[in-house]
Amino acid sequence: MKKAVRLCSALTLVVFASLLLECQQLIVQSEGGKQILSRTDLEALPRVKVTASQHSSAPVSFEGVTLKSVLEKAGVRFGESMKGPQLATCLLVEAADGYRVVIALPELDPAFTDKQMVLAFQRDDKPLGEKEGPYRIVIPDEKRMARWVRRVTMLRIVDVQ
Ligand SMILES: Nc1nc2c(c(=O)[nH]1)N[C@H]1C(S)=C(S)[C@@H](COP(=O)(O)O)O[C@H]1N2
Ligand SMILES: [Mo]
């Protein structure tokens, strides 16, 4: 019986994850609650284009929006507001395959850094393929690609205990 329940919840998760991917929805969970952003919502944000090399191969151009603008749309505040308790929260990026990566909020904020962190949806002017899309984190200046999360499904602001 327990096995059946576990199988059922695993199946539900898989169905839910594939539905999400199909609709190209992104969930943003923050203090202000949960927001479901559609591809159209994301495309309405200011576009950024970056060039980055993957595993020292030829440079590729990625287009998308800044992670900061996505979080701002969900009510997260940057700049002058980035102080006090907010500095003990972070962004947890979650992917369809269960991969998870933490990013500190000041890393996304031009008031703190010139580093670019992009939620990309196009590579060389074409939509990202199913192995990495519909959304992927791209961090052009980072030496390793471990935080270039593929198949992003959820951005979660979490309190560090
Ligand atoms: N969802 C997801 N994203 C991921 C990973 C993963 O296992 N799952 N691996 C990371 C690591 S360790 C690397 S080096 C890069 C590899 O990117 P590539 O497959 O485009 O070469 O993806 C990163 N993004
Ligand atoms: Mo890696």
What keyword list fits this structure?
34% strand, alpha+beta, binds ligand MTE, 21% helix, globular, five-stranded mixed beta sheet, five-stranded antiparallel beta sheet, Sulfite Oxidase, Chain A, domain 2, 10 strands, binds molybdenum atom, 3 helices
List the helices and strands and how they pair.
Blueprint: H1 2-23, E1 26-30, E2 33-37, H2 39-43, E3 48-53, E4 59-66, H3 67-73, E5 89-95, E6 100-104, E7 118-123, E8 126-127, E9 136-138, E10 152-159
The structure holds the ligand Nc1nc2c(c(=O)[nH]1)N[C@H]1C(S)=C(S)[C@@H](COP(=O)(O)O)O[C@H]1N2 and molybdenum atom.
What does this structure look like?
The chain has 161 residues and is of the alpha+beta class. The protein has one domain: Sulfite Oxidase, Chain A, domain 2, CATH 3.90.420. Helices cover 21% and strands 34% of the residues. The protein is built from 3 helices and 10 strands. The chain has helices at 2-23, 39-43, 67-73, and strands at residues 26-30, 33-37, 48-53, 59-66, 89-95, 100-104, 118-123, 126-127, 136-138, 152-159. A 5-stranded mixed beta sheet has the order 2-1-10-5-6. Strands 3, 4, 7, 8 and 9 form a 5-stranded antiparallel beta sheet that branches. The protein is globular and about 55 Å long. The chain starts with a helix and ends with a strand. The chain binds the ligand Nc1nc2c(c(=O)[nH]1)N[C@H]1C(S)=C(S)[C@@H](COP(=O)(O)O)O[C@H]1N2 and molybdenum atom (MO).
